Amino acid sequence: MEPRSFKLLYLLTFLFFSANAVTHVTVPLQTASTGASNATTGIVTGAYMLACMVARPWAGYLVRRYGAGPLLRATLIAYMPVMAVFPFADPAGLLAVRLLQGGCTACFSMALQIGMIDALPEHRRAHGVSLYSLSTYAPAVVMPVAGIRIWEIGETFLYAGVMFALMAAVGTVGYVAVPHLQGAGETLSRDDGTNHRSQRLRALGNPDFLVCSFSMLAASVAFGAVSAFIPLYAAQLGEYDAGIFLALQAATVVTVRFVWRKRIPSGGRWPGRLIAGLLSLVAAASCLLALAGWTGPFGFYSAAVLMGIAQALLYPTLMTHLTFELPNTARNVLLGLFIASADLGVALGGIAMGPVADLGSYPTVYATCAGGALLAACLAVGREDLSKNQKASP
């Protein structure tokens, strides 16, 4: 693809995730305004990532079977009417549209990422994945604040107008950009399909794949707990602004990803120390949130910066490593499973942590997230030591 084609795809990604970013902050507030419990709010919020998790491997298979372009076109056609329903939905309706939104997002991201990875030379994969990830997070700089302000104004038609405008932009750019992502699917014989399934099953036991997936899962629980409960936690604390927290976190993600886009490891060597350091930042940020009642605004907003640094670098580092580590015949589906681990983590950050918040408190939620991140950091370091020992042995 030409550089202009990549720019169109990055713009499409930006617009797509701008709409998602608005709903990520309005859905918890919209659900809670009906008197729903934290558990119900967590379920509705986490349903999006739960649907993503289930759909990712299937989306990877569909890309291999039909090609990235056709899947992306079908996804956009389904996505636009789903997003238009959000301003008018009750909690039951929100649960349904969040599930559909998650499925569309899974197909969109898998089609774009695999299509771009296939088109990029190996030495530019990390750069391309980083810019794609940057495009997904850039909307979170302003859209969470915009979403909260739209909700505070309380005008349903303003909310609907914003969503309709975003969908019109997604449709227009998608119409121009999708033809650049045309890729032929593969016609697989029965024997080919059986062989590929066998290779995928063997690749599931790959130590790097397992550690990458668990690391992403543990970190994403913390990311999900922030998305689901920071608006409610900030309101409980009283002197904190959730919109500023989310915008600061997103601005950190965008800045760090842009500055470090060419420095992310792009090869087969296991970057264990880097991964462990990023997971330690997740744990530190979670601890600061747990102690926000004592540390004051400085600790609260510092957590946004630390969480943003980890969020900026962890996913592209792990994703790029797996594109080299996984066998080609199993790569699409297993990359889908890896991204599904991130989706599962974000979903658990809402669904599993909701009851923790009900039975305990928000500080208990973030202390639990810190423990999970530290465990994953230990595994990442252990995997690096094991890799060194294997290379040293005759």
TrEMBL record:
Residues of the signal peptide: 1-23
Pfam families to which the protein is assigned, alphabetical: MFS_1
Subcellular location: Cell membrane
SUPFAM superfamilies the record matches: MFS general substrate transporter (SSF103473)
Gene3D superfamilies: MFS general substrate transporter like domains (1.20.1250.20)
InterPro entries referenced in this protein's UniProt entry, alphabetically: MFS, MFS_Exporter, MFS_trans_sf
Molecular function terms from GO: transmembrane transporter activity
Main location: membrane
Membrane-spanning residues: 39-59, 71-89, 95-117, 129-151, 157-178, 209-230, 242-260, 272-292, 298-318, 330-352, 364-382
Topology class, membrane: Multi-pass membrane protein
UniProt keyword annotation of Transmembrane present: yes
Keywords associated with the record: Membrane, Signal, Transmembrane, Transmembrane helix
One Gene Ontology CC term in the entry: plasma membrane
Identification of the protein by name: MFS transporter
